[in-house]
TrEMBL record:
The organism of origin for this protein: Tenacibaculum skagerrakense
Residue stretches making up the Cyclic nucleotide-binding domain: 15-114
UniProt protein name: CRP-like cAMP-binding protein
UniProt-listed SUPFAM superfamilies: cAMP-binding domain-like
Length: 189
């Protein structure tokens, strides 16, 4: 159950062995069924969630529409780290696109553990740097590239998304209609 998160910390945020063992002992396993909401806008993150298996979609919602902003398909943290770190409400929503398994840890024990092993600042700083880099690239691509170019990037770099995620969700992510996506797919294939 802890293999994926253990490997994640070993490669992304190395802790000493005692720190990893203690951290893993604090995580609880949770399961969500396809269609269940993990995070709702205007709430605050109270726990870190690590995706052990399954697919999560992250999106913004208005009364008129939902716009997908990310999909999580690989073992990684899926929490809104800004909301978690700053005790602020989130603008994001998250939904299970398949049955999923999460490992979760509440904020207080996580913070105490990171302080104990003096790696908390490093973990938060590195996490934010990665998130900001991803967000900047996402925004840059959305503004400067055509839907065809964006789809081609998904085809090259995120084929697992195209294989696992319903096409109408991919269309929302690309900010196009499903019909336009179908035409792009025909041209590129």
């Amino acid at each position: 159950m802890y293999d994926k998160i253990s490997k994640f910390f070993e490669t992304e945020y190395p802790l000493n062995q005692h720190g990893i063992e203690e951290l893993l002992s604090l995580f609880k396993r949770k399961e969500f069924k396809k269609g269940e909401i993990l995070l709702k806008a205007n709430t605050s993150e109270k726990e870190l969630r690590f995706l052990n298996s399954g697919i999560v979609r992250e999106f913004y919602a208005t009364p008129e529409k939902e716009t997908n902003i990310n999909f999580y398909t690989k073992p990684q943290f899926v929490s809104d780290l800004f909301s978690f770190s700053n005790n602020s409400s989130t603008n994001k929503n998250q939904e299970a696109l398949s049955d999923i398994e999460l490992l979760t840890i509440e904020k207080e024990p996580f913070t105490k553990l990171l302080e104990k092993y003096e790696c908390g600042k490093s973990f938060i700083d590195l996490s934010f740097q990665k998130l900001l880099k991803q967000k900047e690239l996402f925004e840059y691509n959305r503004i400067t590239k055509s839907a065809d170019e964006l789809y081609q990037e998904l085809f090259i770099y995120k084929t697992h998304w195209l294989e696992k995620i319903p096409q109408y969700h991919i269309a929302s992510y690309l900010n196009i209609t499903p019909e336009t996506l179908s035409r792009i797919r025909k041209r590129i294939s």
